[in-house]
Amino acid sequence: MDNLSSTASLTMSTDGTAIACEQRGTGPAVVLVGGALCTSASDAPLAELLAADFTVFTYDRRGRGGSGDRAPYAVEREIEDLAAVVALAGGEVMVHGMSSGAALALRAAAAGVPVRGLSVYEPPYETGARARADRRARVHRMASLLAEDRRGDVLAEFLRAAGMPAEALYGLRRLPVWADMERLAHTLAYDHEVLGDGTVPTELLATVTGRVLVVDGGASPSPMREAARAVATALPRGRHRTLTGQTHEVAPHVLAPVLAAFFAG
């Protein structure tokens, strides 16, 4: 199979929800777990780079893209989804999680999903008391907006909190991609659930016995980098790596060789 080609498939989660997957490349299996507002397509650039050395599986988390969804939401169901993709990939595999997908991957590893090596990029935990209070207020506002089906306002709240300038947000709302993002707005509540109270879950991380690479960007905001270091410290076999000049929107061509070296080690 050409590394740049992909094969689509469906796998069934424990509760009967269909999870849409794509497979690229040949070699040891790696599963990519996307972050907020991401689908399997979002992970395609990184997957194509890793496919030179690995069989890479990307998937749509529940409620996104080609995957199904069931109410009520529970983090345990998302862990089961990832476990189903890991089983499809052949069992004990390598996993990489991005942002909230990193938090989900860490929770899955702690729950016993068979992960041979785990890397995470900037899990978005909060380390300061003020930041945690701001997060609680933001999550409450977004939940209220979702209850009123004000998806555009939910997105705007999330993107403002992520640091998007007002002018950029104004322009984005007028692009065709905005409608695609609105369709995923309800899954932001899922990401909030995955992150729990937003603090670094040190007790849970202490139960992750496998080796974990925690990566951040040298140009990311200092609270994000502090959270990455705190996660690495809490993990029994955690390693920390900073990518010079990178932000939360890490360049796939910079990240890919770092992951390849870690997974091959």
Automatic annotation (TrEMBL):
GO molecular function: hydrolase activity
Superkingdom assignment: Bacteria
Entry-linked Pfam families: Abhydrolase_6
Domain AB hydrolase-1: 30-253
Keyword Cell cycle: no
Transmembrane helix listed as a keyword: no
Keywords: Hydrolase
InterPro entries referenced in this protein's UniProt entry, alphabetically: AB_hydrolase_1 (IPR000073), AB_hydrolase_fold (IPR029058)
Protein name: Alpha/beta fold hydrolase
Organism: Streptomyces genisteinicus
